[in-house]
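Q: Predict the assembly, please.
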Amino acid sequence: MEIEIKENIFNANDQLAADNKAKLDREAVLALNLMASPGAGKTSLILQSAKSLSDRLRLGVIEGDIASSIDADNVRSHGIPTELINTGGACHLDANMIQTPLAGIDLPSIDVLFIENVGNLVCPAEFNLGEHLKIVILSAAEGADKPYKYPLMFKVADAIVINKIDLMPYIDFRTGYFYDGVRALNQQAPVFELSAKTGEGVDAWASWLLEQWNERFGQGHGEPDTSR
Amino acid sequence: MEIEIKENIFNANDQLAADNKAKLDREAVLALNLMASPGAGKTSLILQSAKSLSDRLRLGVIEGDIASSIDADNVRSHGIPTELINTGGACHLDANMIQTPLAGIDLPSIDVLFIENVGNLVCPAEFNLGEHLKIVILSAAEGADKPYKYPLMFKVADAIVINKIDLMPYIDFRTGYFYDGVRALNQQAPVFELSAKTGEGVDAWASWLLEQWNERFGQGHGEPDTSR
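A: Predicted assembly structure:
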Protein backbone atom coordinates (compact mmCIF):
# COMPACT_ATOMS: atom_id res chain seq x y z
CA MET A 1 0.00 0.00 0.00
CA GLU A 2 2.85 2.34 0.80
CA ILE A 3 4.22 1.92 -2.71
CA GLU A 4 0.81 2.48 -4.29
CA ILE A 5 0.22 5.68 -2.32
CA LYS A 6 3.69 6.91 -3.23
CA GLU A 7 3.10 6.22 -6.94
CA ASN A 8 -0.20 8.08 -6.83
CA ILE A 9 1.46 11.05 -5.17
CA PHE A 10 4.22 11.16 -7.80
CA ASN A 11 1.72 10.81 -10.68
CA ALA A 12 -0.51 13.58 -9.36
CA ASN A 13 2.53 15.78 -8.82
CA ASP A 14 3.82 15.19 -12.35
CA GLN A 15 0.43 16.19 -13.81
CA LEU A 16 0.47 19.49 -11.90
CA ALA A 17 4.12 20.00 -12.83
CA ALA A 18 3.19 19.63 -16.51
CA ASP A 19 0.49 22.30 -16.05
CA ASN A 20 3.02 24.64 -14.46
CA LYS A 21 5.48 24.06 -17.26
CA ALA A 22 2.90 24.72 -19.98
CA LYS A 23 2.09 28.03 -18.31
CA LEU A 24 5.77 28.99 -18.17
CA ASP A 25 6.32 27.95 -21.80
CA ARG A 26 3.41 30.10 -22.99
CA GLU A 27 5.09 33.14 -21.47
CA ALA A 28 8.62 32.17 -22.54
CA VAL A 29 9.79 32.02 -18.93
CA LEU A 30 12.73 29.69 -18.20
CA ALA A 31 12.20 28.15 -14.76
CA LEU A 32 15.04 26.84 -12.59
CA ASN A 33 14.60 24.65 -9.51
CA LEU A 34 17.49 25.52 -7.17
CA MET A 35 18.28 22.70 -4.76
CA ALA A 36 20.99 22.55 -2.11
CA SER A 37 21.84 21.86 1.51
CA PRO A 38 21.00 24.58 4.03
CA GLY A 39 23.43 27.46 3.74
CA ALA A 40 24.93 26.50 0.38
CA GLY A 41 24.22 29.97 -0.98
CA LYS A 42 21.07 29.63 -3.10
CA THR A 43 19.85 33.14 -2.33
CA SER A 44 23.29 34.69 -2.83
CA LEU A 45 23.54 32.98 -6.22
CA ILE A 46 20.15 34.40 -7.22
CA LEU A 47 21.29 37.92 -6.28
CA GLN A 48 24.61 37.58 -8.14
CA SER A 49 22.83 36.14 -11.19
CA ALA A 50 20.45 39.10 -11.18
CA LYS A 51 23.42 41.48 -11.14
CA SER A 52 25.22 39.68 -13.94
CA LEU A 53 22.09 39.34 -16.12
CA SER A 54 20.50 42.71 -15.35
CA ASP A 55 20.61 44.11 -18.90
CA ARG A 56 19.94 40.76 -20.58
CA LEU A 57 17.22 38.83 -18.76
CA ARG A 58 14.49 39.90 -16.34
CA LEU A 59 14.23 37.73 -13.25
CA GLY A 60 11.51 36.63 -10.87
CA VAL A 61 11.85 34.48 -7.77
CA ILE A 62 9.77 32.03 -5.77
CA GLU A 63 11.30 31.53 -2.33
CA GLY A 64 10.53 28.24 -0.60
CA ASP A 65 11.29 28.05 3.10
CA ILE A 66 9.99 25.99 6.00
CA ALA A 67 9.65 29.14 8.07
CA SER A 68 10.64 32.83 7.94
CA SER A 69 10.68 35.39 5.13
CA ILE A 70 14.40 36.20 5.48
CA ASP A 71 15.37 35.21 1.93
CA ALA A 72 12.23 36.58 0.30
CA ASP A 73 12.69 39.96 2.02
CA ASN A 74 16.32 40.01 0.96
CA VAL A 75 15.58 39.29 -2.72
CA ARG A 76 12.64 41.71 -2.78
CA SER A 77 14.83 44.46 -1.35
CA HIS A 78 16.87 44.22 -4.57
CA GLY A 79 13.79 45.09 -6.64
CA ILE A 80 13.21 41.54 -7.89
CA PRO A 81 9.56 40.33 -8.07
CA THR A 82 9.37 37.65 -5.36
CA GLU A 83 6.72 35.33 -4.02
CA LEU A 84 7.20 33.40 -0.76
CA ILE A 85 6.00 29.91 0.17
CA ASN A 86 6.41 28.77 3.77
CA THR A 87 6.04 25.01 3.74
CA GLY A 88 5.31 24.90 7.48
CA GLY A 89 7.53 21.89 8.09
CA ALA A 90 7.47 20.15 4.71
CA CYS A 91 10.99 19.26 3.62
CA HIS A 92 10.61 20.09 -0.09
CA LEU A 93 8.44 22.01 -2.57
CA ASP A 94 6.03 20.21 -4.88
CA ALA A 95 4.14 21.22 -8.02
CA ASN A 96 0.97 22.03 -6.11
CA MET A 97 2.72 24.40 -3.69
CA ILE A 98 4.08 26.33 -6.66
CA GLN A 99 0.69 27.14 -8.19
CA THR A 100 -0.35 30.04 -5.97
CA PRO A 101 3.02 31.86 -6.05
CA LEU A 102 3.22 31.22 -9.80
CA ALA A 103 -0.13 32.98 -10.22
CA GLY A 104 1.22 35.84 -8.10
CA ILE A 105 4.12 36.60 -10.43
CA ASP A 106 3.53 38.67 -13.57
CA LEU A 107 5.05 36.13 -15.99
CA PRO A 108 4.94 38.32 -19.14
CA SER A 109 7.27 40.76 -17.41
CA ILE A 110 10.03 38.20 -16.62
CA ASP A 111 12.29 35.85 -18.62
CA VAL A 112 13.76 33.64 -15.91
CA LEU A 113 12.10 32.31 -12.77
CA PHE A 114 14.34 31.04 -9.97
CA ILE A 115 12.50 28.69 -7.63
CA GLU A 116 14.50 28.34 -4.44
CA ASN A 117 13.64 25.00 -2.88
CA VAL A 118 13.84 24.14 0.84
CA GLY A 119 17.46 23.65 1.97
CA ASN A 120 17.74 19.86 1.75
CA LEU A 121 19.95 17.63 -0.39
CA VAL A 122 17.53 14.68 -0.21
CA CYS A 123 13.77 15.14 -0.62
CA PRO A 124 13.55 17.93 -3.25
CA ALA A 125 15.25 15.64 -5.81
CA GLU A 126 12.11 13.50 -6.01
CA PHE A 127 9.58 16.17 -6.98
CA ASN A 128 9.18 17.97 -10.31
CA LEU A 129 7.79 21.48 -9.99
CA GLY A 130 7.39 22.21 -13.71
CA GLU A 131 10.89 23.64 -14.00
CA HIS A 132 12.95 23.45 -17.19
CA LEU A 133 16.19 22.84 -15.33
CA LYS A 134 17.16 21.34 -11.99
CA ILE A 135 20.20 23.07 -10.52
CA VAL A 136 22.15 21.59 -7.62
CA ILE A 137 24.33 23.96 -5.62
CA LEU A 138 27.06 22.64 -3.34
CA SER A 139 28.98 24.78 -0.89
CA ALA A 140 32.65 23.81 -1.20
CA ALA A 141 32.76 23.82 2.62
CA GLU A 142 30.43 20.78 2.63
CA GLY A 143 33.18 18.61 1.17
CA ALA A 144 33.72 16.64 -2.02
CA ASP A 145 32.01 13.40 -0.96
CA LYS A 146 28.46 14.66 -1.43
CA PRO A 147 27.77 12.96 -4.83
CA TYR A 148 28.62 9.61 -3.22
CA LYS A 149 26.35 10.20 -0.22
CA TYR A 150 23.43 11.96 -1.94
CA PRO A 151 23.49 10.34 -5.39
CA LEU A 152 19.93 11.06 -6.55
CA MET A 153 20.40 14.81 -6.30
CA PHE A 154 23.51 14.77 -8.48
CA LYS A 155 21.93 12.28 -10.89
CA VAL A 156 18.89 14.44 -11.67
CA ALA A 157 20.84 17.71 -11.93
CA ASP A 158 20.88 19.57 -15.27
CA ALA A 159 23.69 21.75 -13.95
CA ILE A 160 25.83 21.73 -10.82
CA VAL A 161 27.27 24.77 -9.08
CA ILE A 162 30.18 24.59 -6.64
CA ASN A 163 29.73 27.75 -4.59
CA LYS A 164 32.02 29.43 -2.02
CA ILE A 165 35.23 28.76 -3.97
CA ASP A 166 36.65 31.77 -2.08
CA LEU A 167 37.00 29.31 0.87
CA MET A 168 39.09 26.81 -1.13
CA PRO A 169 42.43 27.91 0.42
CA TYR A 170 41.09 27.14 3.92
CA ILE A 171 39.39 23.76 3.36
CA ASP A 172 40.41 20.36 1.99
CA PHE A 173 38.16 20.08 -1.06
CA ARG A 174 39.28 17.13 -3.20
CA THR A 175 38.23 18.41 -6.63
CA GLY A 176 39.14 15.27 -8.60
CA TYR A 177 37.23 13.07 -6.15
CA PHE A 178 34.20 15.32 -6.51
CA TYR A 179 34.19 15.22 -10.32
CA ASP A 180 34.71 11.43 -10.31
CA GLY A 181 31.65 11.07 -8.10
CA VAL A 182 29.56 13.39 -10.26
CA ARG A 183 30.55 11.79 -13.57
CA ALA A 184 29.75 8.29 -12.32
CA LEU A 185 26.15 9.50 -11.92
CA ASN A 186 25.77 12.20 -14.52
CA GLN A 187 27.85 12.62 -17.68
CA GLN A 188 26.03 15.66 -19.08
CA ALA A 189 25.55 18.33 -16.45
CA PRO A 190 27.96 21.25 -16.72
CA VAL A 191 29.69 22.17 -13.45
CA PHE A 192 30.24 25.84 -12.58
CA GLU A 193 32.78 26.75 -9.93
CA LEU A 194 32.04 30.18 -8.51
CA SER A 195 31.76 32.42 -5.50
CA ALA A 196 28.41 34.12 -5.06
CA LYS A 197 30.16 36.26 -2.43
CA THR A 198 32.98 37.70 -4.55
CA GLY A 199 31.31 37.22 -7.94
CA GLU A 200 34.17 35.11 -9.30
CA GLY A 201 32.93 32.66 -11.93
CA VAL A 202 29.36 34.04 -11.97
CA ASP A 203 29.56 35.38 -15.54
CA ALA A 204 30.11 31.90 -17.05
CA TRP A 205 27.06 30.65 -15.16
CA ALA A 206 24.98 33.66 -16.25
CA SER A 207 26.01 33.21 -19.90
CA TRP A 208 24.92 29.59 -19.73
CA LEU A 209 21.51 30.71 -18.40
CA LEU A 210 21.15 33.12 -21.31
CA GLU A 211 22.01 30.29 -23.74
CA GLN A 212 19.39 28.09 -22.09
CA TRP A 213 16.76 30.80 -22.55
CA ASN A 214 17.77 31.37 -26.18
CA GLU A 215 17.71 27.65 -27.03
CA ARG A 216 14.12 27.33 -25.84
CA PHE A 217 12.58 30.69 -26.57
CA GLY A 218 14.98 32.68 -28.78
CA GLN A 219 13.47 31.77 -32.12
CA GLY A 220 9.87 32.85 -31.56
CA HIS A 221 10.64 35.69 -29.18
CA GLY A 222 13.82 37.33 -30.48
CA GLU A 223 16.02 38.82 -27.80
CA PRO A 224 14.45 38.94 -24.37
CA ASP A 225 12.77 42.31 -23.89
CA THR A 226 14.37 44.10 -20.95
CA SER A 227 12.71 47.46 -21.60
CA ARG A 228 10.20 47.64 -18.83
CA MET B 1 -6.50 10.32 6.55
CA GLU B 2 -3.06 11.78 6.03
CA ILE B 3 -3.02 13.07 9.60
CA GLU B 4 -4.21 9.73 10.99
CA ILE B 5 -1.52 7.78 9.10
CA LYS B 6 1.11 10.25 10.25
CA GLU B 7 -0.01 9.91 13.90
CA ASN B 8 0.11 6.13 13.68
CA ILE B 9 3.61 6.28 12.23
CA PHE B 10 4.81 8.57 15.03
CA ASN B 11 3.17 6.41 17.74
CA ALA B 12 4.66 3.19 16.38
CA ASN B 13 8.06 4.88 16.13
CA ASP B 14 7.90 6.17 19.71
CA GLN B 15 7.13 2.67 21.00
CA LEU B 16 10.18 1.22 19.22
CA ALA B 17 12.27 4.17 20.41
CA ALA B 18 11.29 3.38 24.01
CA ASP B 19 12.41 -0.23 23.48
CA ASN B 20 15.77 0.97 22.12
CA LYS B 21 16.21 3.32 25.05
CA ALA B 22 15.44 0.62 27.62
CA LYS B 23 18.09 -1.57 26.03
CA LEU B 24 20.66 1.25 26.16
CA ASP B 25 19.77 2.09 29.76
CA ARG B 26 20.23 -1.52 30.86
CA GLU B 27 23.80 -1.42 29.57
CA ALA B 28 24.52 2.11 30.82
CA VAL B 29 25.16 3.35 27.29
CA LEU B 30 24.50 7.05 26.65
CA ALA B 31 23.11 7.42 23.11
CA LEU B 32 23.41 10.62 21.09
CA ASN B 33 21.46 11.37 17.91
CA LEU B 34 23.72 13.61 15.79
CA MET B 35 21.74 15.70 13.32
CA ALA B 36 23.04 18.27 10.84
CA SER B 37 23.04 19.46 7.25
CA PRO B 38 25.21 17.54 4.78
CA GLY B 39 28.86 18.34 5.33
CA ALA B 40 28.50 19.98 8.73
CA GLY B 41 31.16 17.69 10.18
CA LYS B 42 29.27 14.99 12.10
CA THR B 43 31.85 12.30 11.38
CA SER B 44 34.78 14.59 12.15
CA LEU B 45 33.18 15.51 15.47
CA ILE B 46 32.80 11.81 16.33
CA LEU B 47 36.49 11.21 15.60
CA GLN B 48 37.61 14.22 17.64
CA SER B 49 35.33 13.21 20.51
CA ALA B 50 36.86 9.73 20.47
CA LYS B 51 40.32 11.25 20.70
CA SER B 52 39.41 13.58 23.55
CA LEU B 53 37.51 10.88 25.51
CA SER B 54 39.80 7.94 24.77
CA ASP B 55 40.85 7.27 28.38
CA ARG B 56 37.49 8.19 29.89
CA LEU B 57 34.63 6.74 27.83
CA ARG B 58 34.48 3.92 25.28
CA LEU B 59 32.60 4.81 22.10
CA GLY B 60 30.53 2.98 19.52
CA VAL B 61 28.98 4.42 16.37
CA ILE B 62 25.97 3.78 14.15
CA GLU B 63 26.46 5.51 10.79
CA GLY B 64 23.29 6.43 8.90
CA ASP B 65 23.71 7.32 5.25
CA ILE B 66 21.46 7.24 2.21
CA ALA B 67 24.22 5.54 0.24
CA SER B 68 27.93 4.69 0.56
CA SER B 69 30.04 3.43 3.47
CA ILE B 70 32.51 6.34 3.37
CA ASP B 71 31.86 7.54 6.92
CA ALA B 72 31.52 4.05 8.43
CA ASP B 73 34.84 2.94 6.85
CA ASN B 74 36.48 6.10 8.14
CA VAL B 75 35.28 5.66 11.73
CA ARG B 76 36.05 1.91 11.72
CA SER B 77 39.59 2.62 10.53
CA HIS B 78 40.11 4.42 13.86
CA GLY B 79 39.32 1.24 15.76
CA ILE B 80 35.85 2.31 16.86
CA PRO B 81 33.07 -0.34 16.75
CA THR B 82 30.79 0.84 13.95
CA GLU B 83 27.58 -0.37 12.35
CA LEU B 84 26.30 1.06 9.06
CA ILE B 85 22.72 1.67 7.91
CA ASN B 86 22.14 2.69 4.31
CA THR B 87 18.63 4.13 4.17
CA GLY B 88 18.41 3.65 0.41
CA GLY B 89 16.81 7.03 -0.20
CA ALA B 90 15.05 7.69 3.10
CA CYS B 91 15.83 11.17 4.39
CA HIS B 92 16.16 10.31 8.09
CA LEU B 93 16.68 7.42 10.49
CA ASP B 94 13.85 6.04 12.60
CA ALA B 95 13.67 3.79 15.66
CA ASN B 96 13.03 0.67 13.57
CA MET B 97 16.10 1.19 11.37
CA ILE B 98 18.24 1.39 14.50
CA GLN B 99 17.28 -2.03 15.82
CA THR B 100 19.51 -4.23 13.66
CA PRO B 101 22.67 -2.13 14.01
CA LEU B 102 21.97 -1.77 17.74
CA ALA B 103 21.94 -5.56 18.02
CA GLY B 104 25.23 -5.61 16.11
CA ILE B 105 27.09 -3.49 18.65
CA ASP B 106 28.45 -5.07 21.81
CA LEU B 107 26.76 -2.65 24.21
CA PRO B 108 28.45 -3.88 27.44
CA SER B 109 31.80 -2.89 25.94
CA ILE B 110 30.88 0.77 25.25
CA ASP B 111 29.72 3.78 27.27
CA VAL B 112 28.61 6.20 24.58
CA LEU B 113 26.86 5.48 21.28
CA PHE B 114 26.96 8.14 18.58
CA ILE B 115 24.17 7.68 16.05
CA GLU B 116 24.99 9.75 12.97
CA ASN B 117 21.73 10.60 11.23
CA VAL B 118 21.30 11.32 7.51
CA GLY B 119 22.60 14.77 6.58
CA ASN B 120 19.38 16.78 6.68
CA LEU B 121 18.32 19.71 8.86
CA VAL B 122 14.61 18.95 8.43
CA CYS B 123 13.23 15.39 8.62
CA PRO B 124 15.43 13.80 11.34
CA ALA B 125 14.04 16.28 13.91
CA GLU B 126 10.66 14.50 13.86
CA PHE B 127 11.79 10.97 14.76
CA ASN B 128 12.98 9.68 18.12
CA LEU B 129 15.46 6.83 17.87
CA GLY B 130 15.69 5.99 21.57
CA GLU B 131 18.56 8.42 22.11
CA HIS B 132 19.16 10.19 25.42
CA LEU B 133 20.24 13.42 23.75
CA LYS B 134 19.57 15.10 20.42
CA ILE B 135 22.60 17.02 19.20
CA VAL B 136 22.39 19.55 16.37
CA ILE B 137 25.62 20.43 14.59
CA LEU B 138 25.85 23.54 12.44
CA SER B 139 28.79 24.32 10.19
CA ALA B 140 29.63 28.00 10.68
CA ALA B 141 29.91 28.22 6.88
CA GLU B 142 26.15 27.60 6.61
CA GLY B 143 25.42 30.98 8.16
CA ALA B 144 23.75 32.27 11.31
CA ASP B 145 20.16 32.33 10.02
CA LYS B 146 19.59 28.58 10.32
CA PRO B 147 17.56 28.63 13.60
CA TYR B 148 15.09 31.01 11.93
CA LYS B 149 14.73 28.83 8.82
CA TYR B 150 14.82 25.37 10.42
CA PRO B 151 13.21 26.06 13.80
CA LEU B 152 12.12 22.53 14.75
CA MET B 153 15.67 21.19 14.69
CA PHE B 154 16.94 23.88 17.06
CA LYS B 155 13.85 23.59 19.26
CA VAL B 156 14.32 19.85 19.93
CA ALA B 157 18.09 20.04 20.44
CA ASP B 158 19.54 19.10 23.84
CA ALA B 159 22.85 20.59 22.78
CA ILE B 160 24.02 22.62 19.79
CA VAL B 161 27.47 22.52 18.26
CA ILE B 162 28.82 25.26 15.98
CA ASN B 163 31.53 23.46 14.04
CA LYS B 164 34.24 24.79 11.68
CA ILE B 165 35.02 27.86 13.78
CA ASP B 166 38.45 27.78 12.09
CA LEU B 167 36.63 29.35 9.09
CA MET B 168 35.28 32.30 11.11
CA PRO B 169 37.89 34.79 9.81
CA TYR B 170 36.79 34.08 6.20
CA ILE B 171 33.00 34.14 6.55
CA ASP B 172 30.38 36.58 7.85
CA PHE B 173 28.90 34.63 10.73
CA ARG B 174 26.67 36.90 12.82
CA THR B 175 27.11 35.26 16.22
CA GLY B 176 24.64 37.45 18.14
CA TYR B 177 21.97 36.91 15.50
CA PHE B 178 22.51 33.13 15.75
CA TYR B 179 22.19 33.07 19.55
CA ASP B 180 19.09 35.29 19.44
CA GLY B 181 17.49 32.82 17.03
CA VAL B 182 18.42 29.82 19.16
CA ARG B 183 17.27 31.35 22.45
CA ALA B 184 13.89 32.30 21.00
CA LEU B 185 13.30 28.57 20.45
CA ASN B 186 15.34 26.88 23.13
CA GLN B 187 16.47 28.42 26.42
CA GLN B 188 18.24 25.35 27.81
CA ALA B 189 20.53 23.75 25.26
CA PRO B 190 24.23 24.51 25.78
CA VAL B 191 26.05 25.74 22.67
CA PHE B 192 29.60 24.52 21.98
CA GLU B 193 31.75 26.45 19.50
CA LEU B 194 34.51 24.23 18.18
CA SER B 195 36.55 23.03 15.24
CA ALA B 196 36.54 19.30 14.65
CA LYS B 197 39.39 19.94 12.22
CA THR B 198 41.83 21.69 14.57
CA GLY B 199 40.42 20.30 17.83
CA GLU B 200 39.81 23.79 19.27
CA GLY B 201 36.91 23.73 21.74
CA VAL B 202 36.48 19.94 21.62
CA ASP B 203 37.51 19.35 25.23
CA ALA B 204 34.61 21.41 26.65
CA TRP B 205 32.22 19.37 24.52
CA ALA B 206 33.83 16.09 25.61
CA SER B 207 33.67 17.08 29.28
CA TRP B 208 29.98 17.81 28.90
CA LEU B 209 29.47 14.33 27.41
CA LEU B 210 31.25 12.79 30.40
CA GLU B 211 28.99 14.79 32.74
CA GLN B 212 25.94 13.54 30.87
CA TRP B 213 27.07 9.95 31.29
CA ASN B 214 27.81 10.46 34.99
CA GLU B 215 24.44 12.10 35.66
CA ARG B 216 22.57 9.14 34.24
CA PHE B 217 24.78 6.16 35.03
CA GLY B 218 27.51 7.28 37.43
CA GLN B 219 25.73 6.31 40.65
CA GLY B 220 25.07 2.66 39.92
CA HIS B 221 28.06 2.07 37.74
CA GLY B 222 30.91 4.04 39.29
CA GLU B 223 33.44 5.40 36.83
CA PRO B 224 33.04 4.06 33.31
CA ASP B 225 35.25 1.04 32.84
CA THR B 226 37.78 1.74 30.07
CA SER B 227 39.95 -1.33 30.76
CA ARG B 228 39.01 -3.55 27.85
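Chain B touches chain A at residues 37-40, 65-68, 70-71, 89, 91, 118-123, 139, 141-143, 145-146, 148-152, 164, 166-167, 170-171 (CB under 8 Å). The two ends of chain B are 52 Å apart (CA to CA).
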